[in-house]
Amino acid sequence: MQKMKANLVGLVVLSILVAITSLLVPSTEVAKPMWIFAYALWVVCALFVWHHKLAPDQPRRWLLMAVGSVAGAALWFGFANLVSRIAFGVDEPGLSRLFDVGVALMIAPGLAFIAIAGWARALFMASAT
Fold first, then answer.
1. Predicted TM-score (pTM) of this structure
2. Helices 34-50, 2-24: crossing angle, 10 deg rounding
3. Which of 12, 43, 66, 96 could share a disulfide with 115, CB 3.0–4.6 Å?
4. In 3D, which of 56, 58, 55 has the Cα closest to residue 129?
């Protein structure tokens, strides 16, 4: 029962993060109904990550995972830009830039949101014991 309540806490935090993001992103960029689909995907991924045997067991490690995902996305974006500039020069094609930004955005908020919600879930579990 405690794990189910902890999952609920994590999913509520995740829904708040997705709601804030949906308010910040213009509806001309991402249609509002797409956020429901995005949240559903985040829920599936979050439940998988939270219950994985290698998932962090301490709240602090969840925060480190969030910071690591943002740092990893920044490293990816910098590396991809460097390779694109070497390969294509200053006139980089739009598709390359779209791919670079797309992968960086999947890494950073995708895992960071799951990790922040996992942190809240882990805090709830720690306080309940």
1. 0.81
2. 140
3. 66
4. 58
